[in-house]
# Entry
Amino acid sequence: MAQTPVGKVYFSQFMNSFKSYASIRLFYIFGNDDYQKNKIIELLKDNYTQPETRDFDAVTLYGDSCQGSEIIEHLETLPFMAPLKFLLIKDFDNLKKHEKNLLEDYCQNPLKSSVLVMVAEKVDNRTTLLKLLNAKGVVVECKKPYNSANLLRWLDNELRTRNLKMDKTSRDFLVNNVELSFQAIEQELEKLHLYTHGSNTYTLSDVETTLGAFRENNIYDLQNALGDKNIIRSLTVLQNMIAAEDTGVGVMLVAMLTRYFLILWKVLIYKQNSYTNQEIKQNHLNEVFYSFREDYVRAAEKYSTDQIKQIFSHLLQADTDLKSININDITLFLLIYKICRI
# Structure
């Protein structure tokens, strides 16, 4: 029987071999990359909690406002409805030293019925607590990328995990033309997913189009502004998008907004059938990358199904106008105005 790995690992190692940590109950996540830390938190919640029991058996505390005795009490309380008690402590650096010391005895022999996740900026391996966590749990370092080679390794791993295809020229072009950020390159993958209508193959032309069309402000900025029904911000983003694109963004933008409102409509249908927001995000938005699902669910609260039906009519009219008459800018501004004022 293979021995369960413990000790320090990097983000990619942890994500790629997560199943081997199934019996671990102590996780210390640290580093300067919030995107990676949030991805790990999502993964742990998905695997150690269930949507229907999170209100009872998943607890989040903050280091600057909790005490060591409170943490121990939560950990030693048996789960009410779920197989495991899940305790997440954010800003663990801010927990006072004497409060951290109270955790040392617990970490000597952690309960199998509780999962403890600590999230911090830094790590001090000289402390007794960290020595125990390295011996009994997993310590995951999350580092921001420091060059395009880091982004390329991340991209190659994501493409493999998601069963996507992109040739070397396209990959090199992408990583050398985005912000040096894992979150930024994931947003570019989502844009490619939208633009290609869910294709599993991305060409250099696809990458050039999605990068070029939305450099200053992107489709997510516009979607978020529309999701808030913020007409001033929506029109400002649209203006920046048009100014940044020499060949026009019209038909492509309408297609992507149509997909966006289709997803909002889908969320509303699930809500009308008594699905919770958590259930919708967890199980029913597979066409959206997980880290963006919350944005869609939140935006759906601003619209009704009747309003989205009206928006579909506006989108159809805009698509027809863009393909038949040469007034792209006016058509797009009018479309955004109608959506925000609906």
The longest strand covers residues 114-120. The chain has a mean pLDDT of 88. The chain has three domains: 7-142, 146-213, 215-342.
